[in-house]
Amino acid sequence: MMQTPLPPLPPAPFCAPRAIGALILREMATSYGRSALGYLWAVLEPVAGILLLSVVFAMAFEAPSIGRSFPLFYASGLLPFLAYLNLSNRLAGTLRSNKQLLFYPRVSFADALLARLVLNGTTEFVIAAMAVGLICAFMGAEPMIRWPELALGVAMVLALATGIGVLNRFLLSVLPVWERAWSVLNKPLFFLSCVVFIYDQIPEPYRGWLWWNPLVHAVGQVRAGLYATYPADYVSPGYVFGLSGGALMLGLVFLSRYHRDILKA
Q1: Which value, to the nearest 10 degrees, does the dihedral of the CA atoms of residues 93, 99, 103, 108 take?
Q2: Torsion sign over Cα 211, 213, 214, 215
Q3: Tell me: the pLDDT tens digits for 239-265?
Q4: Which of 87, 89, 260 has the alpha carbon at shortest distance from 172?
Q5: Residue 98 near residue 30, CB atoms below 8 Å
Q6: Are 162 and 87 in contact (CB under 8 A)?
Q7: What's the pTM?
Q8: Would you place residue 108 in the very low, low, confident or very high pLDDT band (cuts 50, 70, 90)?
């Protein structure tokens, strides 16, 4: 007696919550270990590094460009810069680290990208909150926080990291030389993103050139949120979100078309 064959599984829904949750748990286990101490150490290590570098820069410079606390000023530039760098790099490596799982029909590349964005974005937020909290508690810093401005700055950092990370995921797959080229391009980025100085102090024509660096806008907006007296008139959220959205759309279009070929390569 012949049995009626089972119908094929329906296509996986875009960003299925169960798949994303499972991928987040897998990412936590592979990146931080299976205990809570692994995740705690992953947060405390960069916080300690930021605090140490803040103290070193405070000893090297007499006064910050804004406010009275150099550790807070330095952290206000370094934290968004590192959040962008870490998150974009993690997103760019998504398909490579989840290659085997993405062959399952119920796991899409969008699920893997969103899972990594949620996990690593949350981690960077916790790192930044702990670093600023410790600087305020033990180093006498008193930020004048404007929450809407700070939230806009955080959104700009997340948008830029997501757009660049997703687009780089495709470029790294089809252009192997891009990994080395991107690494070279990123080396001077620390000094070109107004991390240890403010945009207003840069003379022309260099100030006009640096305006095109979207990280300058993201860092400036975060500082405008932490320092109520800092106007940051040069910041253009539309420029950052437009550039980020364009990069994200290009990355998603190309990945949706070629991600199977990339996985088989």
Answers
A1: -20
A2: negative
A3: 999 999 999 999 999 988 887 777 666
A4: 89
A5: no
A6: yes
A7: 0.87
A8: confident
